[in-house]
Amino acid sequence: MSKPLPNSIYARDVEYLLHAATNARKHEETGPIVIDRGEGIHVFDDQGNKYIEAMAGLWSVAVGFGEKRLADAAYQQMLKLPYYHSFSSKSNEPAILLAERLVNMSPDKLSKVFFTNSGSEANDTVVKMVWYFNNARGKPNKKTFLARVNGYHGITMASASLTGLPVNHRDFDLPILPVKHLTCPHFWRFGLPGETEAEFTDRLAAELEQTILDAGPDTIAAFIGEPLMGAGGVLPPPAGYWTKVQEICRKYDILIVADEVINGFGRLGTMFACEYYGIEPDMLVVSKQITSSYQPLAAILFSDEIFQGIADNTAKIGTFGHGFTAGAHPVATAVGLENLDIIEERGLVAHAAEMGEILQRELRSRFTDHPLVGEVRGVGLIGAVELSADKATKQRFDPPGKAGAYLFARGHEHGVIIRAIGDQIAFCPPLIITEPEIMDMLDRFALALDETWAFVRGA
């Protein structure tokens, strides 16, 4: 790992930058790994070390690094119209075309689009839109959101309140919204002794309905959830979960918000995870793979019913008093259009389904019986290996994250960048990954895993 040498770029990083999701004091000691360039599924640091980017950056680089077509799309749009806003009835062609394309490729119920710059901004906007809509339709008490423990929806004040991860709340005085966090739908960790998966699903459905009844259905605005939970540890829901959630929400006039910031655009082997799980959302949030994160962009797709309520209220009060300077940015939306062209032309959704079967098979066959592994899970090209201090009892490490942090660091030494979510190790490679590259990625991971096993045993 790079060290903060005097007068070096590393020392300047330590002096001037505060890093996200980082122990700042530890960073002062170690310095950064400075990523210099990328090519395909690989990135290279400024010392020439080559890494398989097994997390596609942050769950996001669908078409791989160094894709010239996306650079060209940005360049050409910058020459023509480098920036404009969407306030006061202004628009631009790439934003219009991308909105149309998103509506045509998404679940049938969704007919309108609002652009933001990140998934966090999008989910923050979802809260405001839902409140605005309910005020407009004469239901001002319908303000509380239902979310889940371990769910991740962003880091703004509103979206971090929806997030169900303690590290995103602690010492930020969050949550600030009226939000109720329900049991995490992870059967292996939260199922009761002797409980079947079907019984677990029924218990979570009963908890959802009882929470609504206890609060009063007229106070519950929306249920927000990732179809497959990502940053909480790659947690596929139990069978039948989303069917029951939707039935209960429809019964009590509660909007369903599908957060596909990580799931969308092929990650599970379908264009959207809503298709995979049979979800019919009122609102759908996308980001990350919409541009392969070459440009900041996110979008909220929502139903005509919500649009009509919002539109009527803008006529009543004179405006929709919300928006971002860079919302519907012409360069970002132009890159989004080109990125979707690449995904479709190269058949990357079908490719992700094919490679996903290989990834899931190899993760399970190679690591399920490893003495350090409690569970292997995932769908498509997203997977996780959860480390456990005791396989039989599912015991967590003390302190939590001890093994995961060591494994994360050993991965770097073996040329693979994974993500440690506590002691859960996530994989989310670019959609372009091939079978030989999957094998190479897992070979490198296996070396790091074995070294971590020796570490936790004190060998």
UniProtKB/TrEMBL annotation:
Protein's GO biological process: biotin biosynthetic process; gamma-aminobutyric acid metabolic process
SUPFAM superfamilies, per the entry: PLP-dependent transferases
Leader sequence residues: none
Cofactor(s) the protein requires to work: pyridoxal 5'-phosphate
Assigned keywords, A-Z: Aminotransferase, Pyridoxal phosphate, Transferase
Pfam families the UniProt entry points to: Aminotran_3
Matching InterPro entries: Aminotrans_3 (IPR005814), Aminotrans_3_PPA_site (IPR049704), PyrdxlP-dep_Trfase (IPR015424), PyrdxlP-dep_Trfase_major (IPR015421), PyrdxlP-dep_Trfase_small (IPR015422)
GO molecular function per UniProt: adenosylmethionine-8-amino-7-oxononanoate transaminase activity; pyridoxal phosphate binding
Family designation: Belongs to the class-III pyridoxal-phosphate-dependent aminotransferase family.
Protein name: Aspartate aminotransferase family protein
Organism of origin: Aureimonas glaciei
